Amino acid sequence: MELKKVIDNVFWTEDKNRLLVTKNLVAGESVYGERLLKTGGQEYREWMPMRSKLSAAFYKGLKTVDLKEGSKVLYLGASSGTTVSHVSDIVANKGEIFAVEISEEMGANLILLAEKRKNIFPLIADARKIESYSKFVPKCDFIYQDVAQRDQVEIFIHNSNQFLKNGGYGAIAIKTKSVDVSKPSRFIIEQTLATLRKHFTIIDSIDLYPYQRDHALIIARKK
Amino acid sequence: MDNIDYIRRARKTLKEGLSLGDLVTKLVNLIDETEQAENTLFEAIYDLYFMYYPEAAVLLKERDKFIEIVSNGVERGEVGNYLKISTESMGYDLSADDRSLLNLHVNEIKNLSDMRNFTKTYLDKTIHDAYPNIYGIADYMVAARLIMLSGGIKSLAFMPSSKIQILGSEKALFSHFKKGKSSPKYGVIFKNPAIEGAPQEKRGKIARALAAQISTAAKLDFFSKKDDSAVLREKLEKEIDRIMKNGTKKSNR
Known about the structure:
Order of helices and strands of chain A: EEEEEHEHEHEEHEHHEE
Oligomer: heterodimer
Number of domains of chain B: 2
CATH topology of the largest domain in chain A: Rossmann fold
Number of helices of chain B: 14
Mean pLDDT of chain A: 93
Strand content of chain B: under 5%
CATH class of the largest domain in chain A: Alpha Beta
């Protein structure tokens, strides 16, 4: 199996069926039932576009994103840790992921994941209430947000004002049906981009159809 | 940096975030899901039984009645005698093996039904012990659903009674806001005998009175835990009496 590097620890397999994989940080462990592939003595985990919006963005043509080994990442809306586990593969042992999740039930999965992966720092908190976790999160290189809330853009901006380094990058997964169900997706995305431009330079905006319906991933750089 | 401190803190937040209200929510879900499973199974088993003994099946359309009677024995002889109908049937004659298979299935659905009733009794006791004031004036299932929909006794205690009145009728409420349809008069509190048994035009008013008392009861349960439900019940009964005596639909407008 031939591998082509995308970013640190993320590869395309050069087979008939092109697959996105990440280098497994914890050998032998599959986090959410994904396939494990072995080549050249190294184990890789399949990163499925149906399960993760960041993966879907790569499948839809995202070339690069400013995540690398050793990055400090603030992750809002960590959920049970599907995407978090792959980001954990990317930033590897020197990196740190501060994973914020509000729901107790999802949080339980996240905590169990963090016990196996030492670079995940779980925070059971509301991403709207920055003061409840601000003393536990340092300045970060990257913010990833996937919260599917009506005011998710405001949440993203508040958090990046507080925690993102100047010139740092952020990725925001917009669920257009959560923002306003009655308006077309394109319109919501344009509106979001306009709001973001006050604080960010927009790098890319990717529609995640057909992997994720009514979702878009926006990559932005803090001014 | 090590994440052990973070894990410890998160575990603590998680433990403290869970409460009796969450248990009540899970129990209500369990009861609802069991009932759904019963209904799904009942349809298939009923169809099979209809093929075997249609004369009895038409008299046993009601799920709980069907389970009660057929679980004592599926044979035409037994069921027919019990229902006092002819055991001569136009249905398909199932072999002894077929009948014992049917019997096993009926027992399975009976087990589900018993389990649901057991869970309900348990929930009844849980609500009685934890929220004596709400229990005193509202049906325990209603009380449990209110706890579930409000997200716990704390938020229920701080909720205005007008919201308690329509909890669980969100669909109707939003079609009222967006499409201008008439506003809902009651949500899950409808299942209370006081409302369910009342004439159509009085139900809204009774729902309002009941919601007001539930609101007081929730505050009592959250802040004091003292059982004052007798006082509340008396107030509520007076209020309902007044509503029932007062005028017709027209004069109330």
